[in-house]
Amino acid sequence: MRLLATKRMSAAFKARLLSHQFSLVEQSFIDIIPIKNPTVDTICDNVIFTSKNAVKIVLSIPRILKMIKDKTIYCVGEKTALLLSKNDQKVAKMTHNSSELAHFLSNNFKNEAFSYFCGKLRTPDLEKILPQNNNSVEAVELYETRLRGKRVKGHFDGVLFFSPSGVRGYALDNSFENTQSFCIGPSTAKEVALHTPKFTVAKTPSESQLLLSIKNYYILHEE
């Protein structure tokens, strides 16, 4: 089976795919453009990260990195949490998606302020849900997400998607016909559903669960 991943995958993931007789082609359909000299005057005691992209940019700016020292950090995604911990940042709570984190914080805090390091293009969950319990969210925009249209050659039995913007970038020049889409999470699946009903969603947004959803799909559809 020939698969297309819409971002670069880990060596371990690719090795596991190969062991199950899958071949993989990688092609990104978005570009992450850091914002030059982002405006950051003050940081709240509570800090939120929902992507590795935001963490990488903060780690590259000593001024901001110093400002988040000793702050309480909440994040989305195992890889985001791992990158933070590898750089001596203690994570108080990690969830699998922004909606889950928004509900956790809203249910456990009231009248608190949060600094949210993010991109210009983001899901609205945190900024919509947190204020419902009188919490404030200060978005600190660090990067832009630009779609990169590119037509892929040949047929793929499945396409792996990891973000709504990745789906949009792929859709610029490619069809969803005659292929199965595999989504890392519900937000991504919602975007894919605008183009095709043929998709599955990983139980949790991790490479292991994504691989499991791929294996299960092809086991069920073996001729």
Could you write a compact summary of the structure shown?
By secondary structure, the protein is of the alpha/beta class. The protein has helices at 11-19, 52-59, 62-67, 78-86, 98-108, 125-129, 164-171, 186-192, 207-220; strands at 2-5, 23-26, 30-34, 46-49, 72-76, 91-95, 113-119, 136-147, 158-161, 180-183, 199-201.
How would you describe this protein?
The chain is of the alpha/beta class. The protein has two domains: 2-29 and 151-220, Rossmann fold (3-Layer(aba) Sandwich), CATH 3.40.50; 32-145, Rossmann fold (3-Layer(aba) Sandwich), CATH 3.40.50.10090. The chain contains nine helices and eleven strands. The mean pLDDT is 94.
Identify the quaternary structure here: single chain
Report the major sheet.
Answer: 6 strands, mixed
Instruction: Assign the CATH architecture of the largest domain.
Output: 3-Layer(aba) Sandwich
Instruction: For the record, give the distance between the C-alpha atoms at the N and C termini, rounded to a whole number.
Output: 13 Å
Name of the top-level CATH class of the largest domain = Alpha Beta
Strand order of the largest sheet: 3-8-7-4-5-6
Number of domains: 2
State the low-pLDDT regions, or none. none
Question: What structural class do helix, strand and pairing data support?
Answer: alpha/beta
Share of β-strand residues: 25-35%
Shape: elongated
Average pLDDT, all residues: 94
Helix and strand pattern:
EHEEEHHEHEHEHEEHEHEH
User: What is the rounded Rg?
Assistant: 18 Å
